[in-house]
Amino acid sequence: MEGLFAGLDISTQSCKLVVIDTREQAAVYVDAVNYDDDLPHYGTRDGTVQGLGPGVSESDPLMWIEAVRLLFERLASDPQIDQRRIRAIAVSGQQHGLVALDAGGNLARPFAKLWNDFSTAEECELLTERVGGAERMIAEVGNTQRTGYTAPKILHLKRHEPRAYTRATTLFLVHNYVNWWLTDGVAVMEPGDTSGTALWSPVTGAWSKEVLDAIDPGLADKLPPVSPSDASIGTIAPNLAEAYSLSLDCVIDAGSGDNMYGAIGTGNVAPGIVTVSLGTSGTAYTFLEEPYVDPEGEIAAFCDSTGHHLPLLCVSNMANGYDAVVERFGMDHEAFDAVIDATEAGNGGRLLVPWYTGERTPDLPHAAPLYFGFGIGEFTKAVLSRAVLEGHVLNLWSGFRRLPVQPAVIHLTGGLSRSASWCQMIADVFEVETVPIEGEGAALGAAIHAAWVWGKEHEHEVPLAELAAPFLVLDAARRRTPTARNVEHYRILRRLYQALSDRVRGLPSDDDPFELRAALSEVALRSPRTGA
Questions:
Q1: Which of 5, 77, 101, 323 has fewest C-beta within 10 Å?
Q2: pTM, 2 dp
């Protein structure tokens, strides 16, 4: 199979385009648009509209379209790439965002609520109550209702903006909306991203009538049909093909969510591999042949983009605490790593629970950070830096322990994976080898998926793992294995973190945080650190 294949990733802060050449087995073109910098007329900060109130995170969907247009214009002007050879395009989109269109194809509401919008906590409670409780909700859609998901966003629209809800005839997720624009009107969804709406069950493969009716008995009429993830939905719109010198035969892939394509872009297409994404939020997910439904609803029951399943943990707080501490003390990755190298695993029992802006896992929309074991004079650069690092990784581990997998290796992606201390901390806390994956993440995964789908439909199917393998570049320099001495500390610190998390939420815990802090001090005395 030869040709060029393109992947678009519509993320919160930027839009990226990757073009791969399957004959050369390489990414031959990479470009990105940063919404804040390249499209300043939208007035965004970190890609979101400002001044909308506490917990609200929204963007203008027209900004995403303008970003794609700009990327296509740049591609068309590059003499090194023959864009007419692009055979298929796949779109990766930030999950759960709600785009509402009216009958004329215009926005029924000017902004789209995003995955990190926490303003729908009341709607989550209402939906859960109407369906009959959390256990019943999990039975219906495989998930509890979270502010990040799409269902409460729809109910919020109906309750607070009824005219806009009535005008809306089509409700899309982010990548569905971009696909609709690329194809000049093909309205379709697919199982991967749709399984994150909390309206559709990854177990039954169907919409939950009970949950739909809890929002509006007529809601089903506003939702596009769900077609397979591993197929195309049409070809590029003629006006776009002409404007950007693309082939009229260029196929548009069904697309999927950024986590689904992030899995492909990090080689997570077979059992035993876990991907951890270290970005604005933190995610951990793995490939499974069969669906996994967490009885507590903390692990998301998602489908992947290959016809299989992708149970996923998401924590809302990840880069925010790190960004704040490096800015506060004027550090970069290297300076931060140097501080961590000079400090002690376990931080002398000083622990940070990093729930800065509410938290998705555990489900605490109104959460705040907790500092445990700090003396008055101990909020120093060294202590805070290690507390932030350990706290974020322990928060991720706390949710991860519910995933039904014992990983052989963790593949790391996202901006924080460039930090050696983050790579080592995850290896120590999770007790498994970690290795960062270089490359373009979800955009690369989308391009690989586009090639896979095109091959199945036009030539012959090449196994996805075989197709993806040449594009995966491991960062061997930052590969890390667990350090035995640190593991001893973190086995205690994991229990301490979980005891604090449980107790502050009013959950029973057999562990006493103060006794565990004392035990941590004993370990430090028994095996003193030898060198920085």
A1: 77
A2: 0.89
